[in-house]
Design brief:
alpha/beta; single chain; 22 strands; binds alpha-L-arabinofuranose; 503 residues; globular; 6-stranded antiparallel beta sheet
């Protein structure tokens, strides 16, 4: 796509709001406490859903929520999570503290999505489920009340179909490793079976298939899988390919990131540099798609698990970890990378939204706090639904900058990250000052890069307004977001505003 900037034509692409998506599964206290507190809870809630989480996801501009997993998808029995008298099942992970509760199921998840204004993305159990179970779940969500499962949904108080458009067929990590889909054709056959059972309703349904995660060393897997699904590049492949990649001291290749709060300056630099791996993943999947999918059908990338995974986040503590300003810088640079590649990256899910890994919120009973990552979402949401603008900057590895605009160029948003730990920089926007006013200017930073928000110090790191001038200072380890609005054209001399209104 191209837009006109003054006399220049710019090649650009759309920044899909789905790049601000989140993932939330049954791990640690993400669902029970972080999301669902129950209708009788003294904690403020809407039909059992924690109100602060609903409001926070809205404020963060979250466009889609992926559920129920992750690995949970491979164990999830959707029928156990609907209707009255739901029983717990045996847990499949120690993080579920002795039982797998079903109080929060499909209806509650859809309610959360509706309240947030986000699209639901449901991941089907391809690993230990059956195509029939998937068909029934699909009908429960999308069938009208004359269908068997649409009628069941109506009985449960929801007569209108949910119209769930986005479905994941399996989970990239666990499917390949736990279920031993080491043979890509085995998964490809299952993908085709699952697609076949809903063939009559495919319409604008989008199916997300498996790609690679950071644990895979199995190059050749995606290529063979796509060759089988597309029948040798003749038929339609998956609408999107799932990619998972965690960076951080918990992961074998990233020990040098060290711990969540106690890390050296070298570990900080290593962590932010490690983000290059996301570009490699995107380039790799872009190549797979170009070479192994038919050009007649569109396949995109769904980066459905991304974030920092620190060594403190173990199954025993429910994958809970602290976040510092380093996590915010990492999130900001990740978003820039996804926006820059949004011609092919259609979705990106921060993992996971409450109490687990690089979350947006931490909760504990009555207590609730926003993490630094939440503020990056909040500031950067201005880019969503806009078009990328080229940024020309002197060669500088410390500053990571991104700009976007609406198609009429009335609104320009710029975000800039100063990754350096002690140097500050000046950014000069005087070239825009004739035609644009700065209407919003905000910064996210902290005294020390190791600062963090806790229940006791909830505002150690939060967005703050700064002076709206065309020359902006970026202190060390800071993130700035600026919104420029085109100046209103002055009225032609012989008219007055009053005369126009009268006419
Ligand atoms: O996000 C935690 C887990 O990490 C997910 O369930 C799984 O897909 C990945 O390995």
């Amino acid at each position: 796509m191209q837009i006109q900037f003054g006399k220049t034509t710019i090649d650009t692409h759309y920044i899909n709001p789905f790049l601000h998506s989140v993932f939330g599964e049954y791990i640690g206290t993400l669902i029970y406490d972080g999301t669902y507190v129950g209708i009788d809870s003294p904690i403020e809630n809407i039909d059992g859903l924690r109100k602060a989480t609903v409001d926070g996801l809205k404020e963060a501009g979250v466009a889609a929520i992926r559920w129920p997993g992750g690995c949970t998808a491979d164990h999830y029995r959707w029928k156990d999570g609907i209707g009255k008298n739901r029983k717990s099942r045996m847990p499949f992970s120690v993080s579920q503290q002795g039982e797998f509760r079903h109080d929060y199921g499909t209806d509650e998840f859809i309610k959360l999505c509706r309240l947030v204004g986000a699209e639901p993305i449901i991941v089907a159990n391809v690993a230990t489920g059956t195509p029939e179970e998937f068909l029934n779940w699909f009908e429960y969500c999308n069938g009208d009340i004359h269908t068997k499962y649409g009628a069941l949904r109506a009985e449960n108080g929801n007569p209108e179909p949910y119209n769930v458009k986005y479905w994941g067929l399996g989970n990239t990590d666990e499917n390949v490793w736990h279920i031993a889909y080491n043979d890509p054709v085995e998964y490809a056959r299952d993908f085709r079976k699952y697609r076949t059972v809903i063939m009559g309703s495919l319409g604008d349904i989008k199916l997300i298939g498996l790609g690679l995660s950071e644990r895979h060393e199995t190059y050749g897997w995606v290529e063979s899988c796509l060759d089988y699904i597309t029948g040798g590049q003749k038929q339609k492949g998956p609408d999107s390919l799932s990619v998972h990649h965690y960076i951080g001291g918990m992961k074998a290749r990233y020990y040098e990131c060290e711990e969540s709060v106690c890390y050296s300056d070298e570990a900080y630099t290593f962590t932010i540099d490690a983000l290059k791996a996301y570009q490699t993943d995107i380039d790799l999947h872009r190549k797979y798609i170009a070479e192994h999918c038919s050009p007649k059908f569109k396949t995109t990338i769904c980066f459905d698990e991304w974030g920092l995974w620190h060594p403190e986040a173990t199954e025993e503590n429910g994958l809970n970890q602290a976040q510092t300003m380093r996590d915010a810088i990492f999130a900001a640079c990740s978003f820039h990378l996804f926006y820059k590649n949004s011609d092919i990256v259609e979705y990106a899910m921060e993992t996971q939204y409450a109490n687990v890994l690089q979350s947006l919120f931490e909760t504990n009973g009555e207590l609730f706090v926003n993490t630094p990552t939440f503020y990056v979402f909040k500031l950067f949401k201005e880019h969503l639904g806009k078009y990328m603008l080229p940024v020309s900057m002197p060669e500088n590895d410390d500053i990571d900058c991104f700009a976007s605009a609406d198609s009429s160029l009335d609104h320009i948003t710029v975000s800039a990250v100063n990754k350096h730990l002690c140097r500050s920089y000046e950014l000069d926007f005087s070239a825009l000052s004739d035609r644009y006013d700065i209407v919003k200017a905000d910064i996210l930073t902290s005294q020390s890069v190791r600062d963090r928000n806790t229940f006791e110090t909830p505002d150690a790191i939060r967005d703050k307004p700064i002076r709206r001038t065309h020359s902006i200072c970026l202190p060390a380890h800071s993130i700035v977001r600026l919104c420029f609005y085109r100046k209103i054209e002055p009225f032609p001399k012989k008219w007055t505003q009053k005369s126009i209104i009268c006419e």
